[in-house]
Amino acid sequence: MTRIVAFTGAGISAESGIPTFRGKGGLWEKFKPEELATPEAFMRNPELVWRWYDERRQMIKKAKPNEGHLILAKIEEEADYFVLITQNVDGLHFEAGNRNVLELHGNIWRVRCLSCGQRYYLYETPLKEIPPRCQFCGGLLRPDVVWFGEMLDPDILDRAFRESELADVFIVVGTSAVVYPAAYLPVVAKEHGAFLIEVNPEETPISEIADVVIREKAGTGMKRVYEILRERGDI
Ligand code: OAD
What we know:
The protein is of the alpha/beta class.
């Protein structure tokens, strides 16, 4: 049995029209992350942070999975064992059909109540009330995503590390691989003997340890990955 793990970042959603964080046209070019994506920023001005998230939710709602997402869904269908670890919060991997997905940084459609702790999916877009209030207790809701300075969910993180250690093939797509602890995963996979494939139009810290580097956008690059998996007999 071949265990295939894919690890994705914002670059896989770029061709769906969702801007990446870093690099040209990246989101953080226009906004300072410490002003928006931190718990302190939220407590200072929940309305501002929610307005920003509401805009992103509207943009994501219009976005459709692209070729890169769809090939990953096809790989899950055909593989003996496949898990997708994503840093993205846009939910497009689910929309494309992937089911075994670990969302390291949360999901932009999920909210969490700061008063009663309930977590639920809230798809209303645009939001009628900003900041939105908990449907159970009326408390202040926050997006259920991981902000700068916050811990990742330890269970999800543990599982992501375990999957990376066990991977036979590890595919890295569209991540700058500079945000930790997520960026350790390809390194751990490689150290444990995985065949490492990178798809990214630009060089990253992963490029030098990868067995195969595909300098293409996710759509074209994933087609090549699919062929490689076929040639190797992994799927
Ligand atoms: P980044 O914005 O840091 O990196 C995007 C990567 O995608 C870059 O390496 C680009 O070269 C590449 N890229 C751009 N267009 C592409 C395309 N069409 N196909 C393939 N690759 C493309 O995004 P992440 O690595 O995901 O964290 O960033 C990691 C984390 O930083 C995010 O999850 C977010 C942010 O802070 C949280 O929200 C906690």
